[in-house]
Recover the amino acids of this structure.
């Protein structure tokens, strides 16, 4: 049975109380502080919420998220707490409002226990660029958890919380989910409100859930989805993310042949083909897809994403909020505030984006990248005329060693090869942990669905999960 | 594309970011490497794409009604600012 549902039953039959779980969760977070998964714990607020929810349950009220604890990535605003984005430039910024997803967490009966560490402004694939220090992978503390939602992934993988929220601009939920052995979902663009999420690449960003298993991730996604008048790109669509076992006979599963060649580790290849064989043996039909533009994804992405980022991060100037470095004239104040406040990777991306948008280069870089993005989205459209779901590995390797990619940004960018196309097209995708590598590190696979068809990938992942039962091997849900 | 020292400094100026002398070489090499990689976009035939600036997303962007509504009060907003005077956000001299 789903680990999250098991916890629900334990609360229902009185074996565990919401307050107990909250206290245990905070205790675990403190005991495992060497992982550095949290920038701040919201202990008092959490206990207060837990007690309130306990009362509600006593009165017979049903809570969609059962009163379970959740970690929130620190680029999502929680009223009354600092939002740092893992950066020094936001030092002292206490959010005066809740992000829409946070309101929804509270409405649906979740207990927010802390703000999760992340790569600075979500720029990175290793969680090493945080101004609050590196986050460590619970399976091997000398390795990275992935990024940028590294703290969120670790908070679930280390069994501190059953739920976490992250954000995914190019793989920032799915890659750390794969490195840490948890389920992570990037919803369709527009599915979840971005109001209260600090913007990185506005046309790419989506908030999404992490959980122990598919059921938990579906449940959390259901709780945070929906149209929001404060986000004009959010849409009104039916929401049903309760996964169901599915008969795989006749299911059309698309594969991208070039991708198999890009897998850099034999043990990941083995898991990839093992799952494919399982799908085939269960009666699914494997369809080789022709997606000629997908190989340009990383190139297009790093122009589009850095252009949007350079523009979004122009607001951090030391005038209205955050940290200010004083000077005797305003221009110099901007310069000093930004130069001292931003870390190296942030500066690099701002510079790249500023370059791509600058006079003389705008057509050659930015407009061209947008055109290629359109062609990539077309490739997905054509693919989904032929298949129900696309199956790929989530990452070309398992978790890197700390420091391994830090001095070679291009190499780090290339590690997002399987996740980035999904954001460019706006489709939803899910990482499912399947097995461990020879070194004992989690290996994750990715399922990609049609626009607004999260249900299909959830059902298929749930069916595969039911066979491999990674969450049992990981031993999640010990409260 | 090679990014020379002058380009790095020019871009940094546009972005209001100060690059230390010791970092110029590193940034120019790293940016050059990334832009070399991006060059592959030039192979793609984009002649069919007419509407690159149009969003790829479906969303039916709804403009909200043009009606005033409650926002944060002044005190809340001023509390966020690094420096204030009376009811104003204070900045160093502009000229």
């Amino acid at each position: 049975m789903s680990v999250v549902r098991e916890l629900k039953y334990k609360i229902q039959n009185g074996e565990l109380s919401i307050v107990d779980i909250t206290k245990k969760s905070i205790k675990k977070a403190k005991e495992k502080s060497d992982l550095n998964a949290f920038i701040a714990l919201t202990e008092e607020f959490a206990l207060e919420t837990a007690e309130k929810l306990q009362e509600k349950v006593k009165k017979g009220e049903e809570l969609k998220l059962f009163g379970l604890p959740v970690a929130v990535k620190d680029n999502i605003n929680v009223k009354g707490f600092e939002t740092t984005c893992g950066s020094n430039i936001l030092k002292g910024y206490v959010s005066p409002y809740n992000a829409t997803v946070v309101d929804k967490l509270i409405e649906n009966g979740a207990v927010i226990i802390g703000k999760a560490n992340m790569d600075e402004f979500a720029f990175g694939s290793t969680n090493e660029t945080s101004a609050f220090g590196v986050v460590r992978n619970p399976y091997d503390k000398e390795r990275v958890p992935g990024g940028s939602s590294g703290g969120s992934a670790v908070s679930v993988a280390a069994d501190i919380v059953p739920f976490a929220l992250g954000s995914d601009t190019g793989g920032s939920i799915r890659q750390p989910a794969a490195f840490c052995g948890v389920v992570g979902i990037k919803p369709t663009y527009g599915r979840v409100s971005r109001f209260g999420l600090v913007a990185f690449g506005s046309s790419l960003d989506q908030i999404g859930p992490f959980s122990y298993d598919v059921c938990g991730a579906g449940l959390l996604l259901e709780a945070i989805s929906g149209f929001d008048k404060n986000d004009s790109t959010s849409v009104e669509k039916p929401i049903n993310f309760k996964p169901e076992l599915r008969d795989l006979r006749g299911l059309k599963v698309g594969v991208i042949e070039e991708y198999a060649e890009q897998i850099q580790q034999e043990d990941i290849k083995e898991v990839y083909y093992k799952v494919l064989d399982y799908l085939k043996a269960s009666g699914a039909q494997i369809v080789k897809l022709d997606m000629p533009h997908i190989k340009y994804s990383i190139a297009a992405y790093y122009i589009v994403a850095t252009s949007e980022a350079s523009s979004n991060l122009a607001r951090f100037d030391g005038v209205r909020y955050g940290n200010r470095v004083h000077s005797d004239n305003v221009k110099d104040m901007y310069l000093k505030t930004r130069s001292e406040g931003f870390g190296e990777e942030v500066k690099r991306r701002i510079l790249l984006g500023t370059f791509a948008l600058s006079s003389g280069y705008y057509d050659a870089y930015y407009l061209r990248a947008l055109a290629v993005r359109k062609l990539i989205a077309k490739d997905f459209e054509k693919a989904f005329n032929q298949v129900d779901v696309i199956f790929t590995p989530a990452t070309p390797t398992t978790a890197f060693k700390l420091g391994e990619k830090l001095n070679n940004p291009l190499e780090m960018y290339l590690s997002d090869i399987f996740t980035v196309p999904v954001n460019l097209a706006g489709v939803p995708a899910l990482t499912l942990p399947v097995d461990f590598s020879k070194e004992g590190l989690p290996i994750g696979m990715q399922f990609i669905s049609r626009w607004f068809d999260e249900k299909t990938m959830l059902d298929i992942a749930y069916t595969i999960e039911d066979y491999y039962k990674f969450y049992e091997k990981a031993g999640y849900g010990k409260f | 594309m090679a990014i020379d020292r002058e380009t790095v400094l020019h871009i940094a100026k546009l972005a209001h970011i100060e690059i230390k002398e010791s970092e110029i070489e590193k940034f120019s090499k790293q940016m050059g490497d990334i832009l070399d990689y991006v060059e592959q976009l030039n192979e793609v035939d984009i002649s069919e794409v007419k509407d690159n600036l149009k969003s790829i997303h479906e969303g039916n962007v709804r403009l909200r009604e043009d009606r005033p509504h409650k926002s944060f009060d002044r005190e809340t907003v001023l509390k966020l600012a690094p420096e204030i005077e009376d009811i104003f956000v204070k900045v160093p001299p502009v000229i």
Q: What stands out?
A: The helical segments of chain B are 5-14, 21-38, 74-80.
